[in-house]
């Protein structure tokens, strides 16, 4: 059960029991159902199929209050009252090294950024490696050096780890899983339920850079462009944002599935409309060009060093100015706003005065980009 | 740098600078060197090659105070003074299901037990999945159900997770990485540096069950035996032990590499001799028989529901009695003691009045058992 259903339940006293159940059924119908009998690549893409798999298999089995929000990490309250965030991600990107970074950078930045999205100060990281027999030690050392650099840049310590080796052919070089822990300062409270109509939607920089950089690095597309991954730790940039806009409602990093997917999740979880202005989206010309050639909407392409923020209207200009002064936020932009209707929907206002509905990603146009 | 080297450094005032460096050099010479140019299965076996890889690649790159002890998890002190443990493990066992459990049980028990070995109360778990395209959803659901059962039995919540999918042939069905977090009660302090000569060494039950169960489940050995994995959460049993023997010095679960490997680590880290009495080792007859046929010492075979404890001599009987009253500790035994010399060595006293040196595991006789 996610925040949305939970909210219906929490407002129970206002409803007759049957009505509550009916509302939950409505909620359930909104979520995609799992119809597949085997795992497909689409289940790993972060879109509709991923959501269906997570709902049908994991949330169903692990049912507990922590899982209900299904954000970038779980929030724990310690006996002292101190709040703590925990997050984890596996990394299976191919190729292992691409313009702008490596699987090692991603493994650190990915979890650091997930923690930062909860409002936590990322502090401690674990790293578990599944290695394929035959992986050159030199390749491993290079990746581990990237992790050490990334950890230092993000101000996080890699405190413990694990290594497993599987026979040649049983894995693809190296898979890395990191988990991160950080404390949430008392004055920070980020949640989709605090999002209100007229709030502004910001993005911290250009979108689609990472996904396109990895796709082009594979070399099986006949496109020549110098696109560099944006992989970076955004915790410092989040601090800057929250200082300038202390009532920031919600943060999320648009990784797999891109800005389009997380805006859909926000629209559902907050039961609002997210209206994006297509002309305001910061997209590098070469990324836009590659997307057009591939027939992919940049709104669905992954980033690894960006976030989307919802801030109250009166703090939006301060937020934008603060972001733009930071080296990682120079291309930040206000890209849309929140409306009450149509609820649970993302609307894109096109350059021609029209609008289109932006659905969750279906299928997996860009597999294994993280 | 591990506890051992750290201890030399910490006692610095007693040594001239050159002497300290010399002692660290001596320590370094004791640790195996990494001579391989590619990753081999032995690097994942938990023995000498694993230690060399971890030292040369991970500890070298991630150098920080948390990594120095290299135990089952890292200990963090929060700003409130509260101590917390963090641990992680990847699971790549084949077959996915074996007598007594599945990869799902292992993924929960493994991390729960690692946390318990630090003295922490295991409370929150993350679960990250790397799935191979084509994995039947039903198989996944079965594994996830096992994880939910195992989490409930251990009293831990699975609070967040991640799912990645790789193309057919790029993984072997399913790999699971869990990370766990738990708080350490203030009265608990476990460390190899507190181990003293004349302390007693206990094991919580029969050894070698898990490794042999998985080996036989693969069906490529011509041995018929009903050996069942011991996979289980031992946090409850640790509570029982620490209540009966509050001055327990050190705990470790003998997974990969078995009791022999962790006793070697203890001998090195505490700079003592660990003397084991072969006749006191609890080994099931069928496990002993299978080990003999395979030419493997049960001291090197993995367990997933056992621990080794070092307790002060005057609390050993109380510890043993308490363990034996618990369903998971009925076969607990005192298996040896600690001596000052020969330092950094494990000695096995055989049934014939002789002794033999038990070295760290070399190679990987039992690959992918967790």
From TrEMBL, chains A, B:
Segments forming domain PurM-like N-terminal: 72-184
Pfam family, one: AIRS
Transmembrane domains' residue ranges: none
Residue intervals of the PurM-like C-terminal domain: 199-348
GO biological process, one term: protein maturation
InterPro entries: HypE (IPR011854), PurM-like_C_dom (IPR010918), PurM-like_C_sf (IPR036676), PurM-like_N (IPR016188), PurM-like_N_sf (IPR036921)
Entry superkingdom: Bacteria
SUPFAM superfamilies in UniProt: PurM C-terminal domain-like, PurM N-terminal domain-like
Family affiliation: Belongs to the HypE family.
The name this protein goes by in its record: Hydrogenase expression/formation protein HypE
Source organism of this protein record: Mycolicibacterium agri
């Amino acid at each position: 059960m996610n925040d949305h259903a939970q909210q219906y339940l929490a407002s129970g006293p206002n409803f007759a029991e049957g009505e509550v159940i009916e509302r939950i059924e409505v909620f359930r119908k909104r979520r995609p159902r799992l119809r597949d009998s085997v795992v497909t690549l689409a289940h790993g893409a972060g879109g509709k199929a991923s959501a269906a798999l997570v709902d049908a298999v994991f949330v169903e089995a692990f049912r507990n209050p922590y899982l209900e929000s299904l954000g970038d990490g779980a929030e724990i309250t310690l006996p002292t009252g101190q709040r703590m965030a925990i997050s984890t991600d596996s990394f299976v990107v191919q190729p292992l090294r691409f313009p702008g970074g490596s699987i090692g950078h991603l493994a650190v930045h990915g979890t650091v950024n997930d923690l930062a999205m909860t409002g936590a100060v990322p502090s401690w990281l674990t790293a578990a490696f599944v290695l394929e027999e035959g992986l050159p030690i030199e390749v491993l050392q290079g990746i581990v050096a990237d992790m050490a650099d990334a950890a230092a840049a993000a101000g996080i310590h890699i405190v413990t780890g694990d290594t497993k080796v599987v026979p040649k052919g049983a894995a693809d070089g190296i898979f890395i899983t990191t988990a991160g822990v950080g404390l949430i300062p008392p004055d920070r409270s980020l949640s989709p339920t605090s999002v209100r109509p007229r709030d502004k939607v910001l993005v911290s920089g250009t979108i689609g850079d990472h996904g396109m950089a990895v796709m082009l690095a594979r070399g099986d597309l006949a496109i020549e462009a110098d696109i560099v991954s944006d992989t970076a730790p955004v915790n410092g940039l989040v601090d800057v944002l929250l200082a300038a806009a202390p009532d920031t409602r919600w943060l999320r990093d648009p990784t797999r599935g891109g800005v389009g997917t997380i805006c859909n999740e926000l629209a559902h979880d907050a039961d609002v409309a997210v209206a994006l202005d297509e002309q305001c989206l910061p997209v590098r010309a070469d990324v836009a060009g590659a997307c057009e050639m591939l027939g992919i909407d940049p709104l669905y392409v992954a980033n690894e060093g960006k976030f989307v923020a919802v801030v109250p209207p009166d703090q939006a200009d301060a937020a934008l100015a603060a972001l733009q002064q930071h080296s990682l936020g120079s291309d930040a932009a206000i890209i849309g706003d929140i409306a009450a209707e149509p609820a649970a929907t993302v609307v894109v206002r096109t350059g021609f005065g029209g609008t289109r509905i932006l659905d969750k990603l279906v299928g997996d146009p860009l597999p294994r980009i993280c």
